[in-house]
Amino acid sequence: MSIVELRQYTLRPGARETLIELFEREFVTGQQSAGITVGGRFRDLDAPNRFVWLRMFPDMTARRRSLEAFYTGPIWRRHREAANATMTDSDDVLLLRGPGFTPPPGTREVLATICHRPETTAFATYAARHLNPAHALHRTEHAENDYPHLPVRTGEDVRLWFGPTEPPPWPTRRLRLEPVTAYQGMARAVGTRA
């Protein structure tokens, strides 16, 4: 199991493709070189100004070290103003423990379920009936955020998984997500210039 961040950014109207192109061109390899595993990146199909993505770390110590390396490094310093100019909120972040998630190639849509405050025993029964390893089940990581420059949501207990399932009996939020690939981003950017 890894430490996983589910990051949901609210962007300025019309800025999503600009951020995606910058993210794919600069930030994927930039983070990887700092020891961060970048997982799925998505357009929220129900919110045109929303970009959702995951990144993974082996443990909290590696997370702090890798975030310090990336956010003080040359790639972020060179492109942070352009990235920040696309965003109105980048603080909607869940700190989780789980396997991470990257959709298989060719996936057109992913359903993500965020389940709030599930009762532990009842959730275990639900999960045994409805979830399998392909759902990539995650749970809240309650460790203190030791990189406070990037806030995470606290005081919540959630379970997150990917793929269709019967809705659970607890409060949930479902996200319909379109995976981003470098090719999609470049094709869309070229299409907007024509």
How would you characterize the overall build of this protein?
This protein is of the alpha+beta class and 194 residues long. The protein has a single domain (2-193), classed as Alpha-Beta Plaits (2-Layer Sandwich). It is 34% helix and 31% strand. It has five helices and eight strands; from the N terminus they run E-H-E-E-H-H-E-E-H-E-E-E-H. The chain has an eight-stranded antiparallel β-barrel with strand order 1-3-2-8-5-7-6-4. The chain is globular, with a radius of gyration of 17 Å. Residues 4-86 form the NIPSNAP domain. Pfam families: NIPSNAP. InterPro entries: Dimeric_a/b-barrel, NIPSNAP. This is NIPSNAP domain-containing protein.
Quick gist of this model?
With 194 residues, the chain is of the alpha+beta class. It has helices at residues 16-33, 60-71, 74-85, 120-130, 182-193, and strands spanning 2-11, 37-44, 50-57, 87-98, 110-116, 138-140, 158-162, 172-179.
SSE topology sketch:
Layout: E1 2-11, H1 16-33, E2 37-44, E3 50-57, H2 60-71, H3 74-85, E4 87-98, E5 110-116, H4 120-130, E6 138-140, E7 158-162, E8 172-179, H5 182-193
Antiparallel strand pairs: 1-3, 1-4, 2-3, 2-8, 4-6, 5-7, 5-8, 6-7
Helix pairs in contact: 1-3, 1-5
CATH architecture type: 2-Layer Sandwich
Summed up, the domain count is: 1
Pairing-aware structural class of the strands and helices?
alpha+beta
Instruction: State the share of residues found in helices, binned by percent.
Output: 25-40%
* CATH fold group: Alpha-Beta Plaits
Question: Any low-confidence stretches, pLDDT <50, length ≥5?
Answer: 183-194
How widely separated are the two ends? 45 Å
